[in-house]
Design a protein that fits this description.
Layout lengths: L13 H9 L1 H9 L4 E2 H7 L4 H13 L3 E7 L5 E7 L3 E6 L5 E6 L5 H15 L1
Length: 125
Amino acid sequence: MIRDSSAKDDPPDIDTVLAALHDKDCRAILTELGTPRTARSLLDRCDIPRSTLYRKLDRLSEATLVSEGTEIREDGSHATRYRLNFEDVIVTRTDSVDLEVEIDRPARTPDEHLAEMWSEVRREL
């Protein structure tokens, strides 16, 4: 079970979440996302090749541990910013000895809601 009030699609399965957390490069990216960052900034801060960085960001997005939003700039160029999309990941054992994952999400600000809606509109175009 994954508790995720912000998820629009089916939540990821436990294997997807645990695989992302087990990956050394994914953990390096998560460490650098104390504040939202662009891929360029992450490249500067992580010792990961560009193609690998994007694959790892996709893996983290699939696990719903990272979200992306569009930073709108006055000059008309836009940048994608990545941010942590969790506060806690809790793995528990159920009575039937299955494992469950709960993902606690941070509260969204009105600006983040607007940015998320804008990102969705851009994807539709």
